[in-house]
Amino acid sequence: MVTDTSGTVHWLFGDQLGPHFVDPARGGPRRDAPLLMIEARSVFRRRTFHRAKAHLVLSAMRHRAAELGDRVRYVKADTYRQGLREAVGEAPVTVHHPTSHAARAFVSALPSVRVLPARGFLVTHDEFKLWADGHGTGHLRHEDFYRWVRQTHDLLMEGDRPAGGRWNLDHENRRPPPRGATELAVPAPYRAKEDDIDAEVRNDLDRWARDGDVEFVGEDAPRTFPATRREALAALRRFVGHRLATFGAYEDAVLTGDPTMSHSLLSSSLNLGLLDPAECAERAEAAWRAGDVPLNSAEGFVRQIAGWREYVWHVYWYFGTEYRASNALRHHEPLPEWFTELSPDATDANCLAHVLRQVRTTGWTHHIPRLMILGSFALQRGWDPHAVTDWFHRSFVDGYDWVMVPNVVGMSQYADGGRMTTKPYTSAGAYIDRMSDFCGPCRFKPSVRVGEDACPFTAGYWNLLHRHRDRFERNGRMSQAVRGLDRLADLDELLEQERRR
């Protein structure tokens, strides 16, 4: 153990790796306080994580320990409790607010641990509670929250008005991919390079899997996502300097030959704590004010970072532990093995196979494939939202409990009945056809809903609307779509087809 009597030991979790977690000016420990990090094998035994995710987390933790040097004790233990006992015994420890209900309950139950306020977000828990309580606890709206954050943090503002006169530039940020293009003509995203620490991580993971101690899903290709603060800053600079300008217009578009489009790929760095959301949003704003990027791109990125990410974090805590069990649509079907095993060859739907293959090889895909292909497919088939949430948590390099519970339970699967979003996010195949190049070579036709050529998304969409007609026809944003059921001459045939499927 590091011997230093000048301060209480401060414990860093594996997603608290940036400088803002040890900065005393921002509520962190004293500069001379000894630090503790615990690598608990039990985390990887509890769930079958994507191999690339396990690699990234361990690489980031071990890189951070190497940076901190003699100030930190890095303990490899079977459990967190064992690691604490080995490192400090019963001595007092501080730790910043963890990022899951389970971890928060664990540290709060330890008499020797004092929990400090959360770091890594723009809005505090108390600030969000004051805002949310003023809007009623039943239904919160992201748009209201986003405008409030913009105002209180002076992001993309001109006095008391939004830059450009409008809060929301979504209508400019929903373009389909350029006609005939196979990729966007933009510089490639930052790619990290592995080092000796990565080789050590890979050897450990290989040994654990070989010994039958843990199981993984997906492939362990060379690490491409940042594992250090230096790498994360380089990725942020490259995005803002070379990719942000085209991000806005095509943020919802998908191309088979361009899996990253103009997306930042910074979510894993933010969720590991390597980047702070304020610096990301401020750099994007500075690029716009310098005339380097259009407003719609800067606003689209700020909306993701200062709006949606903050909103998801706070909804997770505000709605409490029971929120994850929400199942308003009463969906209970189990996930098929081919889906959980990330087996793209098990489906003939080109879009679904392509996205599953990307997740299998990288542990990442951007938000539209997640929401409108993976999530929409699960919703249409009535899969258990708790199982879907767990799958997203395990299968993505940026997946954490706080990230996936609101995103999947609330937005993707509409399992909360509308507490977080105003409508289910699902569509027929026409949307996928408009926003991607998947449908052309697919054996299914997006306009066909019955028969051998029937698109599973088109048939699934109408089947979902019929199954929940009573609920959806009372939703102002869904009622017109539900009325479309009455115009389907082949509805009975479609329902029988989907029942057999």
Question: Any overview of this molecule?
Answer:
It comes from Streptomyces fulvorobeus. Keywords: Lyase. GO terms for molecular function: lyase activity. The protein is mainly alpha-helical and 501 residues long. It folds into three domains: 9-116, HUPs (Rossmann fold); 125-190 and 226-318, Serine Threonine Protein Phosphatase 5, Tetratricopeptide repeat; 324-500, DNA Cyclobutane Dipyrimidine Photolyase, subunit A, domain 3 (Orthogonal Bundle). It is 45% helix and 6% strand. The protein has helices spanning 42-46, 51-68, 80-88, 101-108, 125-133, 142-152, 196-210, 229-243, 267-271, 277-289, 295-318, 337-340, 350-362, 367-380, 385-395, 401-412, 429-435, 456-467, 469-472, 479-483, 491-500; strands at 9-12, 35-40, 72-77, 93-96, 113-116, 157-158, 161-162. The strands form two sheets. It has a five-stranded parallel sheet with strand order 3-2-1-4-5, with helices on both faces. Strands 6-7 form a two-stranded antiparallel sheet. A hairpin with a 2-residue loop joins β6 (157-158) and β7 (161-162). α13 (350-362) packs across α14 (367-380) and α18 packs across α21. The termini are far apart. Residues 1-6 have low confidence and may be disordered.
